Amino acid sequence: MTDDAIEARLRDLGHTLPEATAPLASYVPYVLAGDLLHVSGQIAMADGKVITGRLGETIGVEEAARAAEHCALMLLAQVRAATGSLARIDRVVKLTGFVASASDFFDQPKVVNGGSNLMVAALGPEVGSHARSSVGVAALPLGAAVEIEGIFRIA
């Protein structure tokens, strides 16, 4: 699939690919090891602002799933920055989603589905389907509601 086709799919979903952001601390945004690109966790941001909240307290599942979509968009932006082209993605290998959660919130997978579904919709099921973990945490950087990291096989 070409870059144009992937970006057209994203537009059809109501999204545009953002520019990759610089790290907020002492790490690199991605590491290419052989044909595997490891992308550091991307927090949920929209319109230049962090999407904040804690599931089960201040933000709902649907809104947080949309935040997870933004995390997935930032992952794709980092892949493009690392490789020069989204068309080089041969497979989304694994996503790990972290969800800021109250102690009695147990629907983390429903939140992270937002990111997973975006990968499949943008890249197609053969490339976009992936292994995944969804983890509830007490807090995320900058009060973010969701953070997702990813591993991609690059052609």
Write the layout of secondary structure elements.
Blueprint: H1 3-12, E1 30-33, E2 36-43, E3 45-46, E4 49-50, H2 61-83, E5 89-100, H3 108-123, H4 125-128, E6 131-137, E7 146-154
Parallel strand pairs: 5-6
Antiparallel strand pairs: 1-2, 2-7, 3-4, 5-7
Short characterization:
The protein has four helices and seven strands, in the order H-E-E-E-E-H-E-H-H-E-E. Helix 2 crosses helix 3.
Could you explain how this protein is built, in words?
With 155 residues, this protein is of the alpha+beta class. Helices cover 34% and strands 28% of the residues. A hairpin with a 2-residue loop joins strand 3 and strand 4 (49-50). The longest helix has 23 residues, at 61-83. The termini are close together. The model has no long low-confidence stretch (mean pLDDT 96).
Proportion of β residues?
Answer: 25-35%
Low-confidence segments? none
User: How many domains make up the coordinates?
Assistant: 1
Q: CATH superfamily assignment?
A: RutC-like
- Strands ordered across the widest β-sheet: 1-2-7-5-6
Biggest sheet character: 5 strands, mixed
Report the end-to-end length measured between terminal Cα atoms.
12 Å
Radius of gyration: 14 Å
List SSEs in N-to-C order.
Answer: HEEEEHEHHEE
Mean pLDDT: 96
- Look at the structure and give the CATH class: Alpha Beta
CATH architecture: 2-Layer Sandwich
Q: Percent range for helical residues?
A: 25-40%
Overall geometric form = globular
CATH topology: 60s Ribosomal Protein L30, Chain: A
Question: Would you count the extended β strands for me?
Answer: 7
InterPro entries: Endoribo_LPSP/chorism_mut-like (IPR013813), RutC-like_sf (IPR035959)
Organism: Histidinibacterium lentulum
Domain Endoribonuclease L-PSP/chorismate mutase-like: 7-143
Protein name: RidA family protein
